[in-house]
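User: Hi! I have a protein structure encoded as tokens and I'd like to know what sequence might fold into it. I'm fairly new to this, so please keep things simple.
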């Protein structure tokens, strides 16, 4: 699935998940609306009907009293109309799920209707005693019974309405709970999908950024965690990244081969130049004028610098090709310290730098190293320390026992190296930003050669530096090194 398709599917899924609780809430509200309408159309209408029925019974009672007192046809007709009206209201109770109460009221109304003609006739005939007797025996009990039934119906309706209201309240509470739970669940699922989308996009981007930073720092062996077989855009980017690193590695290999060949071919003409310069110095071709001697001196210095650079390039190429050999022999620690003190004493005096070598107790008297190579390593580190340390600073070499071997630390109070550049200081031709604080520019090969020599001895070299405070190079070597080429050591490591 492509990145665009993944985003589209994820966004549509999130939209559907978030719309789900909304649809559920709307449907629940519609259901509550229908229930409220039913409550209005039945319970409330039934309550109004019972109220009208009570008023009708009261009106019927008043009409009957009017008939007993007025004893005319108008009162009789009004009473007959009211009896019919109350009977119709009683029959209507059946439409509101109160049929039993309607029947009981209907019985009372029919009793009144049956006795009404006798009461009419007695009242119209002026027989008040008979009319009052019929009223007391039929009308009053029947109306009282009807009133009692109305009260029962009203109480039943009130209980039923209260139960319906409680039921609706519970439904509302349940709907609210379900809606909130559905919303929370939808938000959690949407958040999970959003996290998955973000992760599926940000993780490859971070991996690509790390890979590009590694390549920019010179690590051409970095491999992305993104498989190139992926069918989306990141798979194509991973494939392009691998192809880029492969081509850069080939270019780096070609560069190394070119440097090796060029260095080897340059060594012969440089030696010829130096040889002729020596002959000129010895006067083989005649005496030199003072001006010629000055030019000759400059040529000698530059030729020796060029020869030293070519030798360094050859050393680097030889170690990289697996042909670097060590010639370990017995070395006295005191002799090594004395030679270094003699070599750098004059430089320390000239630059007004406090230089000292400290030997910790417990060191072996003798080690088995390649003395020339280790002198080259320590000389290079001390030369850099002097080069980057200002007047009045200090440089120190400390030798101590470490895990059965020897630990050597070259410490200075110089310019220091920025922390982001420390991982690359042992790369070929790499020079840190502190070069401006040095008196002379370097070639960027000294530390690379030093690391290869230390590795060839089976040791380790590291650097700890703080800008403006100083730098500490730490070398740890075994006390005894086996005579092997770098190719043999590489094969053993494999």
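Assistant: Happy to help. Inverse folding works backwards from shape to sequence: for each of the 494 positions I chose a residue that suits the local structure. Here it is:
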């Amino acid at each position: 699935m492509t990145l665009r398709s993944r985003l589209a599917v994820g966004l549509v899924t999130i939209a559907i998940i978030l719309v789900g609780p909304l649809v559920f809430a709307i449907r629940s509200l519609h259901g509550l609306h229908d229930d409220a309408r039913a409550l209005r159309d039945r319970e409330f209408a039934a309550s109004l009907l019972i109220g009208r029925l009570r008023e009708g019974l009261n009106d019927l009672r008043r009409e009957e009293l009017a008939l007993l007192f007025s004893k005319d046809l108008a009162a009789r007709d009004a009473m007959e109309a009211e009896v019919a009206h109350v009977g119709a209201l009683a029959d209507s109770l059946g439409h509101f799920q109160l049929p039993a109460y309607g029947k009981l009221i209907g019985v009372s109304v029919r009793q009144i209707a049956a006795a009404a003609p006798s009461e009419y006739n007695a009242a119209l005939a002026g027989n008040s005693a008979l009319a009052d007797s019929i009223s007391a025996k039929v009308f009053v009990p029947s109306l009282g019974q009807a009133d009692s039934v109305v009260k029962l119906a009203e109480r039943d309706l009130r209980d039923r309405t209260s139960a319906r209201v409680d039921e609706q309240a519970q439904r509302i509470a349940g709907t609210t709970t379900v809606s909130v739970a559905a919303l929370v669940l939808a938000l959690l699922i949407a958040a999970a999908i959003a996290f998955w989308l973000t992760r599926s996009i940000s993780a490859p981007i971070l991996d690509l950024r790390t890979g590009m930073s590694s390549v920019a720092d010179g690590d051409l062996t970095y491999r992305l965690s993104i498989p190139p077989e992926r069918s989306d855009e990141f798979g194509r980017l991973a494939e392009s990244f691998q192809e880029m690193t492969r081509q850069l590695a080939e270019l780096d290999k070609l560069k190394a081969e070119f440097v090796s060949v060029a260095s080897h071919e340059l060594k012969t003409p440089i030696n010829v130049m130096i040889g002729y310069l020596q002959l000129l110095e010895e006067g083989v071709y005649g005496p030199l004028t003072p001006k010629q001697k000055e030019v000759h001196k400059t040529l000698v210095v530059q030729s020796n610098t060029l020869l030293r650079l070519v030798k360094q390039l050859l050393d680097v190429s030889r170690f990289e090709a697996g042909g670097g050999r060590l010639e370990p022999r017995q070395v006295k620690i005191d002799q090594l310290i004395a030679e270094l003190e003699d070599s750098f004493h004059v430089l320390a005096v000239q630059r007004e730098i406090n230089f000292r070598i400290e030997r910790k107790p417990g060191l072996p008297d003798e080690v088995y190293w390649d003395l020339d190579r280790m002198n080259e390593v320590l000389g290079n580190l001390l030369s850099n320390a002097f080069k980057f340390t200002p007047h009045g600073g200090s440089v120190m070499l400390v030798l101590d026992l470490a895990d059965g071997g020897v630990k050597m630390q070259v410490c200075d109070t110089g310019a220091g190296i920025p922390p982001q550049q420390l991982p690359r200081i042992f790369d070929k031709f790499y020079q840190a930003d502190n070069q401006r604080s040095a008196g002379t520019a370097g070639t960027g090969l000294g530390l690379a050669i030093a690391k290869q020599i230390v590795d060839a001895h089976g040791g380790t070299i590291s650097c700890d530096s703080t800008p403006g405070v100083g730098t500490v190079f730490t070398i740890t070597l075994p006390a005894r090194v086996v005579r092997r080429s770098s190719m043999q050591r590489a094969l053993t490591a494999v």
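A useful reference point when you look it over: The chain has ten helices and seven strands. Feel free to ask if any position seems puzzling.
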